[in-house]
Design brief:
This protein is mainly beta. The protein has one domain. 0% of the residues lie in helices and 37% in strands. A four-stranded antiparallel sheet has the order 1-4-2-3, with no helix packed on it. The radius of gyration is 13 Å and the shape is globular. The two termini are 23 Å apart. The mean pLDDT is 90.
């Protein structure tokens, strides 16, 4: 999934990065996970998600873009 926004800089994830999400993995406390909040995807470490959050998937890799492709 392509990342939009700059909310995850502290996690090393930036605007236009691509997150590879594995929905088959069982999340661990130190994993970055994708979850829903008010119709938006959120990313955080599992240990930092709100109580009773349903995890949608585990981030297994992040791909950073080095070349700006804007015209």
């Amino acid at each position: 999934m392509r990342i939009t926004g700059n909310d995850w800089h502290e996690l090393g994830i930036f605007e236009e990065d691509i997150a590879i999400v594995d929905r088959a993995l069982e999340p661990r406390n130190s994993d970055l996970v994708i979850w829903w909040e008010e119709n938006l995807f959120r990313i955080s470490k599992l240990k930092d998600t709100p109580t009773d959050t349903e995890v949608w998937g585990v981030v297994s890799s992040i791909i950073h873009r080095y070349r700006n492709i804007s015209k």
